[in-house]
Each structure stands twice: as C-alpha cells, then as structure tokens.
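Lab notebook, bench 4. The sequencing result for the construct came back, and we need a structural model before the next group meeting so we can plan mutations. Quick request posted to the team channel:

Model the 3D structure of this chain.
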Amino acid sequence: MTSPDIHLDIRGAVAVVRLTRPSKRNALSDSLVLALRHIFETLPATVGAAVLAGEGDHFCAGLDLSELKDRDAGQGLLHSRMWHSALECVQYGPVPVIAALHGAVVGGGLELASACHIRVADESTFYALPEGSRGIFVGGGGAVRIPKLIGAARMTDMMLTGRVYNAQDGERAGFAQYLVPAGTALDKALELAERVAQNAPLTNYALTHALPRIAEQPGDHGYLTEALMAAIAQSAPEAKERVKAFLDGRANKVKPS
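Done. Here's the predicted structure in token form:
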C-alpha cells in the first residue's frame, strides 16, 4: 500500500517516515493512516529505529475534517478502531519511534505523536485538542495515551477551554522530552534514532512493548513481567557479548553529558 501523502526513506539502520501533505498541514486522511500502518507493519528487518516527521511548516494539524462523514454510531466506532489499529503499529511496532515535532501538533496529530516513544519538539511547536470546540471527541487513542503524558486534568482543560500549549510550556507539561531550536527537531531525532538503533534489539523490544504494560500492571504482576523480560533479554548472545565487553574494559563508561 502506497500513498503520495507519506514517504519512507531508509538511512542505514534508521527509517525516516515523513508526512507529505504540507498544503493540508499534514492533516490525516484515512488513506494516509492506512499507509502509515502498512509502513510500520512492513519495515525491513535491518531497521533498528524510526523517525516520524512532517514536511513543511507543521508536523500534523490533525484529522482531515473534509473526510469527516455523517456516520452512524456503529460506523463511527469502526472508524475509530481503524485508527487505533494503525497507531498501535507505531507504538507496538518492531522498533522505537522518535517523533520530530514542529509547528502544529494538533488533534489527531497529537494522538499520533503520543504513540511515539520519544518526542523531540522545536521552538515553533504548539499543541492543541480542538475537538471539544468542534462538538467531537478524540478517537485515535488520545484518551488513553495523552493523559499518560500530561495527566487527565490537563487534557480535560485543553478540550474544555481550547487551551493551546507553546513549545516551552508543552515540554514542561510532558508532551516532549527534548526541546531544541527551531528547525533542528529532525536533526536531533535522527541523532537519537541512530543511537537507539545501536541498542540490543531485545532491550529495545522490552522498553517499547513490556515497559508500558508493566506500568499498567499491579505491582506483583509487574515484578514478575520484569523478571521474565530481564531473563530473556540478558540470555541473548548479543547481551552477553556487550556485558563481556564492559567487563573487559572495551565499552564506554557512563559520563555526564
């Protein structure tokens, strides 16, 4: 499945996935969402990390409202579940995903960003959830993912009042882990992705698939899941070699940045 609205570029061990609808501020059509799912379902095995970015002045301004059809409740339910399936392929796909954010990160664009594992925002970034003022509700997983970033109270405020967060306030609230000068989010995201791609694959898998589920489990269940994942990860030949390299003095020690 291909779409003119999304582009995949493989750069060594890093896949760069770019939304390419700048004239629509990279608004998400159904065909784009389905193409996004297909890309993350079919990434080459040589890819160790991915970067998700938007072409033009904005990351993503949300749902393409020109596609907002008069659906009955059942059709609306199935449409939302299609989005859920697609964004789960980002969050629970084969590799960690770093979002390079700039300009509008609004509505469905914020839902998409929240499905990524690391978010790098530049100083032009702003965040909003205008669904409340438009008489609709989030439907792409935002009700689950966004409160985990900023808390339910902040999300409620955004949707009730139309509050917009700028880049600085957004970083403090928890939307992004990195804030960089305007125009440099993609460079920083690529730098991080190249570093992430060098990790042992099972460690990356544990962090993207097991850790978020452990966070949702009761403590005693989480401890068992952690122990099982730790045992699996450290049993891999690559992990054993990395530990041996450290003990032999062949690996870099942790230093302050």
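The longest helix spans residues 73-91.
Will bring this to the meeting.
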